[in-house]
Design goal:
This protein is an alpha+beta fold. The protein folds into 4 domains: 2-14 and 160-367, no CATH class; 31-156, Thiol:disulfide interchange protein DsbD, N-terminal domain (Immunoglobulin-like); 381-433, no CATH class; 457-578, Glutaredoxin (3-Layer(aba) Sandwich). Helices cover 49% and strands 15% of the residues. The chain has 20 helices and 16 strands. The chain has helices spanning 2-13, 15-21, 42-45, 162-176, 184-192, 199-231, 233-236, 240-257, 267-279, 285-299, 304-315, 320-344, 354-375, 381-398, 409-433, 466-479, 493-502, 506-511, 527-535, 565-578; strands spanning 46-53, 57-64, 68-71, 76-80, 95-99, 103-108, 111-117, 124-130, 132-134, 143-149, 155-156, 460-463, 483-488, 516-521, 543-547, 559-560. The strands form 4 sheets. A 5-stranded mixed sheet has the order 12-14-13-15-16. Strands 7-2-1-11 form a 4-stranded antiparallel sheet. Strands 5-6-3-9 form a 4-stranded antiparallel sheet, with no helix packed on it. The longest helix has 33 residues, at 199-231. Mean pLDDT is 75; it is low at 1-34 and 446-457.
Amino acid sequence: MRRLLCLLLLVLALPATAAGLLESRPSSTLGSINNSADFLPVREAFQLSLVESTPQSIKLRFVATEGYYLYHHRFQFRADPSDVTLGPAQLPKGEQKHDEYFGDVEVYHGILDVELPRTDQRTFTLAVTYQGCADKGLCYPPETERLSINGNGASTRHDWGWRELALFFLAGLGLTFTPCVLPMLPILSGVVLRGQVGGLRGFNLSLAYVLPMAACFALLGALMGMFGAQLNLQARLQSAWVLVPFAMFFAVFALAMFGVFELKLPHAISSRLDRIAGRTEGGSLWGAAVLGVVSSLLVSPCVSAPLAGALLYISASGDALGGGLKLFMLGLGMGTPLLLVATGGAAWLPKSGPWLVYMKNAIGVLLLGLAIGLLSRVLPGQITLLLIGLLSGGVGLFMGALEFVYKPPRKRLGQLLGMFLLFYALACWYGGFSGQSDPFNPIGQSRTVVGESPSNTSAWQTVSTPAALDRALADAHSSGTPLLLDWYADWCISCKVIEHEVLNDATVVERLKGYRLIRFDITASNAEQRTLLDRYKLFGPPALMFFGKDGVERADVRVIGEINATDFAERVAKANDRI
């Protein structure tokens, strides 16, 4: 149980690492999506902002929410008035995404910075058109936003808010309870406070110790925010020459957490720092401040892996102030328990013990998971699945999955979790060797064989205007015929999947007998069609809607996003019971 709790603490402790590095997400083919609430509106899924406007260039930032991505080839940038001259947009190299119907496309997850050169210094309106999809299968129609661009004046937007600062504070708070930071407690108690814990004096001295420590992290964050964007680390991380070394970096730190070797500063540096700390006068505000700076240098090597993830996340912002504030909050989070100890005594914190070893091991597992996440961008999906199985099986064995001896209840619970992980590892290995690549469905799912069943495409009537759709719905209602409405677009990858692999499935075709089949083509995505999307509270295709003989939609069986043939056949059967 303690090991499980440690893993949960790590999820709270390292949000920046996960957000900055794990951008490789599998496409969902599950059939559980049946509600528009499962997806974000387009301008929440993809947030566009003007970062900087100068007489020479315009810098825009797109932030795709986790689970969503943008298409490289769908960007358009137009000036109003049209005689304002803009240079070609400068976009970094994206991720390659292969689709059997559309071929190779280039997409962007996470943060994307776009620079537009300009030579005209007049004030104008910039029309930005973009298009993206959700990993779960929903494709949004092309969206256009308009931004007002100043003439000679320059404007810069700071990319941070209280939520991000709070997350970094929680990350620092989580890092405190690790073997990396806990050694700072005896420094604070023995040298700074000279054993006199508690009271206003203890609070002042500990604050003088913590603030310079946090300021050192803030300086690092400000430098990365200032110069990191110029390095374009997010784009460079798409290269195998960068991904593989980073993955090895995290794997080496994981081995250190497992106790294979000890991470520390070189002896020449650490000895000098120790001499500085030894000469520092304890019990004074100045001495506490110097020790805070020295302590930040001493603990930095041990927290380098989480810190690297945070710096990578900050590097994409191009915001020195925001980067400094984020790492300052990280330092404050690390120092808050020290303040509590200095003010109220060591009773505020849990006692040291075996749980520290569990915490180190859990951090090591997380770091190995990050390494696999990075390698998944350059390795085949089957190899990635084998690596996930290897990690899962190792954790399962560590938790005693095969230790069939008497154990207390808590350890038995851990063993049960270990057995589950070992079973999942076997499933990943089986799936990897049989050609599967989805870690959420490692064994795969057998499809219903279509065989010689004739194609069902001739039964579909395609319409593209609200008036034509209304006539089709009215005709079906007057004749007492149930109706299936398929929302489709040529630019929708998941629509092609549903058309070829789901709606032509033999079982689905059989269960749809008696339905009037209408396909609404929203490829043009004009204003009239968008109004229809709003009427039915949809964000875009694909979507499948069932209408009963009474002309009323059966909203409980509506499907939004990608679905497989077996699950959709179950939806049709459920709809048939209600029609």
